[in-house]
């Protein structure tokens, strides 16, 4: 499944909402807004190690000791709980990824179709993630992250089984607090609200990694053939 993170907000809007700064970050190289953040792209994150300042982390969790591994973009909570390496990150390396929507694809008779999922009543969301960090050969720190997902049932189509977990704004400090243990951290994870969720199909251009335009989020109608019976 192709996945994208949407952060259709300016630097000032993101800073004001989260009360976290972009100090010491050259936004010429990390521009906002981001209408189409694909895997391996750098996306703002708030980490346990520095909760007062945004860090641009690469989407796709990779352990620095195993760089050949396939990056993990979205990991079910059940899997996090079942592996020691992920439990350790959940204990020590939790993060928040600001977003106001995500793009997920559905398989259809005409191929994968991207859909924009968002919560209209929430201008910005706090997606829950875990991150890894290591020192590169050049001596700089490399951050990578994955989003934690929870089971989700779309009552209209039953087509989505997992959605990113959300941290409510009043729980930010608790999620990022080093004193919050794993069990308490898990209790802070909330699913997307099916009742408040809106979504629509968008043009496949959004699956092109270099595309970054607000027009990518506009609704696009596909003609999907309906199978009919001759009998």
How would you summarize this macromolecular structure in one to three sentences?
This protein is α+β, with helices and mostly antiparallel strands and 231 residues long.
Keywords:
alpha+beta; 5 helices; five-stranded mixed β-barrel; 14% helix; five-stranded antiparallel sheet; 34% strand; 231 residues; hypothetical protein yedk fold
Walk me through what this model shows:
- The protein is α+β, with helices and mostly antiparallel strands and 231 residues long.
- It has one domain (3-211): Alpha-Beta Complex (hypothetical protein yedk fold).
- Helix content is 14%, strand content 34%.
- The protein contains 5 helices and 12 strands.
- The strands form 2 sheets. Strands 2-1-7-8-12 form a 5-stranded antiparallel beta sheet, with no helix packed on it. Strands 3-4-10-9-6 form a 5-stranded mixed β-barrel.
- Strand 7 and strand 8 (111-118) form a beta hairpin.
- The protein is globular, with a radius of gyration of 18 Å.
- The model has no long low-confidence stretch (mean pLDDT 88).
Under CATH, the topology is which? Answer: hypothetical protein yedk fold
Approximate shape: globular
Number of strands: 12
CATH structural architecture: Alpha-Beta Complex
The H-and-E topology, N to C, reads as EHEEEEHHEEEEEEHHE
* Tally of individual domains: 1
Report, as a whole number of angstroms, the end-to-end distance. Answer: 35 Å
How does the helix and strand content classify structurally? Answer: alpha+beta
Instruction: Please give the radius of gyration in angstroms.
Output: 18 Å
């Amino acid at each position: 499944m192709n996945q994208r993170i949407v952060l259709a907000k300016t630097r000032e809007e993101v800073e004001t909402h989260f009360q976290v700064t972009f100090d010491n970050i050259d936004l010429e190289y990390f521009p906002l807004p981001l209408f189409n953040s694909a895997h391996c792209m750098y996306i703002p994150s708030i980490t346990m190690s520095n909760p007062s300042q945004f860090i641009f982390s690469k989407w796709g969790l990779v352990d620095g000791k195993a760089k050949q591994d396939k990056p993990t973009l979205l990991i079910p909570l059940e899997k996090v709980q079942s592996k020691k390496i992920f439990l350790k990150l959940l204990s020590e390396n939790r993060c928040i990824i600001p977003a106001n929507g995500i793009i997920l694809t559905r398989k259809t008779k005409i191929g994968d179709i991207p859909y924009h999922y968002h919560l209209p009543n929430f201008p910005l969301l706090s997606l829950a993630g875990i991150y890894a960090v290591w020192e590169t050969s050049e001596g700089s720190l490399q951050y990578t992250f994955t989003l934690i997902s929870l089971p989700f049932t779309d009552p209209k189509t039953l087509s989505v089984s997992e959605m990113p977990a959300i941290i409510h704004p009043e729980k930010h400090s608790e999620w990022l607090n080093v004193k919050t243990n794993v069990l308490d951290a898990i209790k802070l994870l909330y699913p997307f609200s099916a009742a408040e969720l809106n979504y629509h199909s968008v043009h496949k251009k959004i699956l092109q990694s270099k595309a970054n335009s607000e027009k990518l989020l506009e609704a696009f109608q596909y003609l999907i053939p309906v199978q009919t019976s001759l009998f």
